[in-house]
Amino acid sequence: MSGRERRLVLERRRVTYREAGAGPPVVLTAGLGLSGRFYDPNLPGFAAAGLRLVVPDLPGFGGSAGPLTGLTVPEAAAWLLAFLDALGIERAGWVGHSVGCQYALAAAARAPERAAGLVLAGPTGAPVRFRLVRQALGLARTALREPPGVLLAVAREYLHVRAPAYLGTWARAASDSALAHAARVEAPTLVLVGDRDRVVARDWVERLVRTLPRGTAEWVERGGHALPRDAAPAFDARATRFLRAALEA
């Protein structure tokens, strides 16, 4: 199943998003530089679980227009909530991937009533020195263990990325305090990390879970930093089971 690609205008800018399935809504916030198309392999699993998965291209990436040098994390969170308003979605499950986890955390902290539950896949935002350097080295190490198909999918996405938006977004995310947002998230939150992920350290995951009022963590076998893509069946099963319970509570 490929997602239905749709468009709308938000804040006078073009927005492209993909969706599939019917039922309670789940919004997925993409990793840095990735469009909604990267998550097409997840659409069948969420649809089969009776969920409506909505994946927007974030401003400045994919088919969505945005500022030349990207958004800050609070700006991205506000944009996501406005996107929900445009679709008439009052309350949703949230899935964040990589940098997208920081956006989902900020949105859930800003508007707790809009988040039924969160799944964070390979969350970035660890408060460490030289964060960007560490992330870059981790990505390089993780890439050595990713399946060729995943690397090809990432390469296809990055061919269309504008460097100022990528670098500006990355730098702004590095200055954001993910823990400050996490402490104010009221919804149950599941942190999923691949056991081959070299970007996300175990001590960071443990600290994040301790900070989240209702956080838990699970490690996914044979999963890397591109967890929703390189371990899609396992990721989909765990995420949909958790989110269905949260949305039905």
Concise structural overview:
The protein is an alpha/beta fold and about 250 residues long. The chain has helices at about 45-50, 75-85, 100-110, 130-145, 150-160, 165-175, 180, 200-210, 225-230, 230-249, and strands at about 5-10, 15-20, 25-30, 50-55, 90-95, 115-120, 190-195, 215-220.
SSE topology sketch:
Blueprint: E1 4-10, E2 13-20, E3 25-29, H1 43-48, E4 52-56, H2 73-87, E5 92-97, H3 99-110, E6 115-121, H4 131-143, H5 148-158, H6 163-174, H7 178-182, E7 189-194, H8 202-211, E8 215-220, H9 227-230, H10 232-248
Parallel strand pairs: 3-4, 3-5, 5-6, 6-7, 7-8
Antiparallel strand pairs: 1-2, 2-4
Helix pairs in contact: 2-3
Describe the structure.
It is a single chain. By secondary structure, the chain is of the alpha/beta class. The chain contains ten helices and eight strands. The protein has helices at 43-48, 73-87, 99-110, 131-143, 148-158, 163-174, 178-182, 202-211, 227-230, 232-248, and strands at residues 4-10, 13-20, 25-29, 52-56, 92-97, 115-121, 189-194, 215-220. An eight-stranded mixed β-sheet has the order 1-2-4-3-5-6-7-8, with helices on both faces. Strand 3, helix 1 (43-48) and strand 4 (52-56) form a beta-alpha-beta unit. Helix 2 crosses helix 3. The radius of gyration is 16 Å and the shape is globular. The mean pLDDT is 91.
